[in-house]
Amino acid sequence: MEGKGIGFRLAMRQGKRRALPDTPEGRLDDLIETAKAHIRAKVEHPFRVNMRQFGLAIVEPVNGQIRECLGLRRFLLRGIEKVNGEWHLIAATDNLMKLFRFRRSQQQALVAVSG
């Protein structure tokens, strides 16, 4: 990017940063590099990388419905396999309740039309 006045803003490696001179300019460069390193650490945090990988997704409404309507905020069992089984049971229950509500609304609509 010569002649364009564009500079890259990458943080220095720690070894290079430690080798900066102990002058006012060197201390200023060290402060700037420290700020860049803090930003880089935030950006490269595993949670943020994971969010970027999948995009900024909204939590599925199903999870919110299970929490609010069914009142299930924590798992009763311990261990990954048991929690996985409990989650499948909760999801199946939620699906059955949705089917039941849909079926009931269909029956009520049929009674209203025919009756």
Describe the protein's architecture and organization.
This protein is mainly α and 115 residues long. It has 2 domains: 14-54; 61-114, no CATH class. It has 5 helices and no strands. The longest helix has 35 residues, at 80-114. The chain is elongated, with a radius of gyration of 28 Å. The mean pLDDT is 78.
Would you summarize the structure shown here?
The chain has 2 domains: 14-54; 61-114, no CATH class. The chain has 5 helices and no strands. The protein has helices at residues 14-18, 24-43, 46-54, 61-68, 80-114.
Q: How does the SSE layout of this entry go?
A:
Elements lengths: L13 H5 L5 H20 L2 H9 L6 H8 L11 H35 L1
